[in-house]
Amino acid sequence: MIFQPVLAGAEIYIANMLWYLIVFAILLLAVEYYAWGPVKNMMEKRRQKVIDDLDQAASNRKKAETLANEREAALQNSRQEATQILSDAKSNAQKTGKEMVAQATADAAGIREKAKAEAAQAKADALNEARDEVADLSVTIAEKVIAKNLSAADQKDLVDQFIKGLND
């Protein structure tokens, strides 16, 4: 071998051992620099990516829960609004129906009053026409009976007396 043993009877070669230690240290540094450092960096990046993915998943889950709650609230509000709209529509329909019935009742009452007034007017017209005819007949009869023509004032007096006689 290249180195001499330190102790004559021992088989340990200190120089070889030092050489192995130096080579081992150099290899250890080379592995640390070329292999362990990149692997360690890769593992750290992977660990950070997993943490980020977990954080992102938790954030997405919270967002999804928030959106689900918002949708549920919006759906509930929509249901309440629909119920309110239906209630308002029913109320408006009932109100409109009542107004229409009231208007129709008022119109019918107005038509009845108008019909009564027209009937009273027709009755009054018929009575006036009957008076005129009775007056003419009375004058004609009186002329024939008395055989003379009456003046207008006399005719009026006769008619008034005749009408008084009809009313009694």
Automatic annotation (TrEMBL):
TM region positions: 12-36
CDD domains given in the database record: ATP-synt_Fo_b
Record GO terms (molecular function): proton-transporting ATP synthase activity, rotational mechanism; proton-transporting ATPase activity, rotational mechanism
Top-level taxon of the source organism: Bacteria
UniProt KW keywords: ATP synthesis, Cell membrane, CF(0), Hydrogen ion transport, Ion transport, Membrane, Transmembrane, Transmembrane helix, Transport
Topological relation to the membrane, as annotated: Single-pass membrane protein
InterPro entries named among the record's database cross-references: ATP_synth_B-like_membr_sf (IPR028987), ATP_synth_b/b'su_bac/chlpt (IPR002146), ATP_synth_F0_bsu_bac (IPR005864), ATP_synthase_B_chain (IPR050059)
Annotated SUPFAM superfamilies: F1F0 ATP synthase subunit B, membrane domain
Pfam families: ATP-synt_B (PF00430)
Subunit-structure text: F-type ATPases have 2 components, F(1) - the catalytic core - and F(0) - the membrane proton channel. F(1) has five subunits: alpha(3), beta(3), gamma(1), delta(1), epsilon(1). F(0) has three main subunits: a(1), b(2) and c(10-14). The alpha and beta chains form an alternating ring which encloses part of the gamma chain. F(1) is attached to F(0) by a central stalk formed by the gamma and epsilon chains, while a peripheral stalk is formed by the delta and b chains.
The family this protein is said to belong to: Belongs to the ATPase B chain family.
Function of the protein: F(1)F(0) ATP synthase produces ATP from ADP in the presence of a proton or sodium gradient. F-type ATPases consist of two structural domains, F(1) containing the extramembraneous catalytic core and F(0) containing the membrane proton channel, linked together by a central stalk and a peripheral stalk. During catalysis, ATP synthesis in the catalytic domain of F(1) is coupled via a rotary mechanism of the central stalk subunits to proton translocation.
Protein name listed in UniProt: ATP synthase subunit b
Source organism of this protein record: Lactobacillus porci
